Amino acid sequence: MTSLFSKVIFRLFGIQIIHSQLGEDLILSLLLEGKKDGMYIDIGANHPKKFNNTYLLYKSGWHGINIEPNLKKIGAFKKKRARDINLAIGVGPKETSMKYYRFDEDTLNTFDYAFAEKNKNMGHKLIDTIDVPVKPLSTIFKNNIPSGKNVDVMTLDTEGYDMEVLKSNDWNKYRPHFIVIETLEYKRSELGQRYDDIFNPYMESIGYKPVANTVVNTIYQDTAARVLDINVREYTPLK
User: Which of 31, 60, 92, 145 could form a disulfide with 134 if both were Cys (CB 3.0 to 4.6 A apart)?
Assistant: First the structure.
């Protein structure tokens, strides 16, 4: 019924139903206008639909990889995102096992000790700490992406661990066309500071430019991408 209602609303009023937090999925759809069968990697996916940056793409016929360390969540992905590869692991500098801090509000779960301590200081309850297998991003690309296949979108939401995830990739080999990164500090009762001064220089150093942001997230585009099979809109970098 929800799907039918969404289609009716869209046809009558031109309103697109979104699933991401602040319309990131709709922005990606506009950036990748004309792409019917793309591929994504969603790292720190949390929920197959709610506040998810890739579910709108999935509904459009896309497929990809969802990475969610919380074992309690991965079953929902296998049910609701059956075309996808769904991995109950983390992403980090090397193949190992790492402590994963789980909170009463599971969107705050993290591998980062300092982020976990900040959560506790803000009054969030730490439920437990478990060991989770972790692999570098480059290994995940190598093991799961067919040779010659391009990843169109990668989205990150690892609660304080995004930079370590980015640094675990081989950017000479694996380059998603667009990358979505949470660039706003989380605070419980007020707007946090932006992390542009941290992420923008690193993304520029690996050949990406910021083309959109939604207060919480920034979308970066590969400046070296030469996409021949789809119409990718070119945007002026944000200042």
Answer: 92
